[in-house]
Amino acid sequence: MNYEQLLRERDLKVTPQRLGILTLMHQSGHISIEDLYVKISRQFSSISLATLYKNVHAMIETALVKEVKIPNMKSKYEIIKAPHAHLFCTQCGSFEDVTVPMEEIEAMLPHGIQFKPTESSLVYSGICEACQNK
Amino acid sequence: MNYEQLLRERDLKVTPQRLGILTLMHQSGHISIEDLYVKISRQFSSISLATLYKNVHAMIETALVKEVKIPNMKSKYEIIKAPHAHLFCTQCGSFEDVTVPMEEIEAMLPHGIQFKPTESSLVYSGICEACQNK
DNA sequence: AAGTTAAGAAACAATTTTTATCTTTTACCT
DNA sequence: AGGTAAAAGATAAAAATTGTTTCTTAACTT
Ligand SMILES: [Mn+2]
Ligand SMILES: [Mn+2]
Ligand SMILES: [Zn+2]
Ligand SMILES: [Zn+2]
User: Fold this and answer.
1) CA distance linking residue B28 with residue B17, whole number of Å
2) Is A116 in Cβ contact with B126 (below 8 Å)?
3) Which of A85, B21, B69, B120 has the CB geometry, 3.0–4.6 Å to A69, for a possible disulfide?
4) Model confidence over A12-61: pLDDT tens digits?
């Protein structure tokens, strides 16, 4: 994936810190601010938490990154891709994507309701396969 | 609704502050901590924010109250009731319940996926009826 | 390639949000 | 009514987030 281009398209300067943030986000799939800070600090020992927050926010505002809110958990951040839902294992804490047709989810609103959804957030909490086999 | 009983069933002492919190939550349907603090302070001018947090947490841990996380918004809290989804208007900020069969939502996980959902969180973001007619 | 400039990084301070600790008060059980 | 443990109030502390100022660098202009 070409992060330089993604940043340039959004008029965000390409800095090593930003490339590092995006690389880490991509590698872990979903990552919390604190985990991101621990990992990015290994590459840029002098990076400040403020820089991290500012960058993540800039990326959210330009629709490059998305905050995923999870019941009873700290938020995680991911690089935006096709709409999808998430599986959160309440036993081991694993968190991953799952492909669910979000248009169908949106079609399940009761008839007669006038609300026009533009986006929806769906997190399934439960027990993952690995935890079931224990 | 009998809040005294709901508290007693959970071995939480019935205090005027707790009854006030539950009443406000019920009246507004969903409320943020800060709004709750503003309103509860009118009844109990000396109540501390720490008391509010402690109580809300105690109620969450005993499954009387639930935190609802909303994309790009502060969390709101509601008294637990039958599973349902939420509509969030990105224009006016209105936030309300919508009845969606959550079992069907859970049945939409791809076949072959072993994950066993116990609960799911679904928030539709979009434009409410009132905002469409403007 | 060197110079210019405006965005971004770092350092640090300040806010805001949440939790912990301690003392006083109160709900609730004999 | 009296005893006791839980909860409220009052701070203080910790954690999370944002703001400010200065220094550095990416990217544009010659
Ligand atoms: Mn995802
Ligand atoms: Mn609700
Ligand atoms: Zn698991
Ligand atoms: Zn609206």
Assistant:
1) 17
2) yes
3) B69
4) 999 999 999 999 999 999 999 999 999 999 999 999 999 999 999 999 99
